Here is the input.
Amino acid sequence: MDIRAWKETLGEMVREMMRSPEMERYFSVRLTQPRAQLMIKQHSHYVRHRRDCWGYLSGNCPVFSIKRRIMEHEYEEMVKDEFSDNGHLELVIRQGASVGLKPQDVLNNEPLPTTLATIYGGYWLICHKTWIEGLVAMTTPEWNNDDRLLADQGGGHSTRMAKKWQDELGLTRKEMPNYNAHSQADEKHSDMFLPFVAEFAAGEKEALALQAAKEALNLFKVYRLGLAVAMEQI
Here is the structure.
């Protein structure tokens, strides 16, 4: 497939995932402050896990231009970009403060079993599959925040959840820096690796890459469903 075909194919996989029963259940849970706190606490595990996985992927990948692109991606996530001078984990901490969490509350807590399963599954995808499968597995879930792709579903995850935080918690967009950043940054991130996918996931590797994308999106559903179930119990 060429770049356009990969974009259409992976995009439809993400669209299907976002309208799945698991995601619909997640979006249907009415928010309260304790439920929002749970989301932030679990997201801190997920964010740090993603940083580990991109690092492992860089180590596995032999292509220098891809390593460089990963470094560009992770510099914005971990160091500095237009949304933060201290990396995106700081945005999670700041958003946590909006619902009554201290930094140590955000950073030091127990992951849900489903969060832990998502983390273990992500490590397996990156460390035990080929690097091109790992690349597709890492980049595809980021499309969940792409408002261009998901406009007819109410927008990407960050845009839809920001609206819920406004409507159900009474917060302003300024009090949701993590959602504000990722509703924009992940549109850029969605496009960053497509040329490499088209170049290197060719021939017999194409089916393997598509399977890796499917597995990564399934893990994303597991993570969000676990949040939904836990929030329903609070």
Notes: The CA atoms of residues 113 and 226 lie 8 Å apart. Residues 33-60 form the longest helix (28 residues).
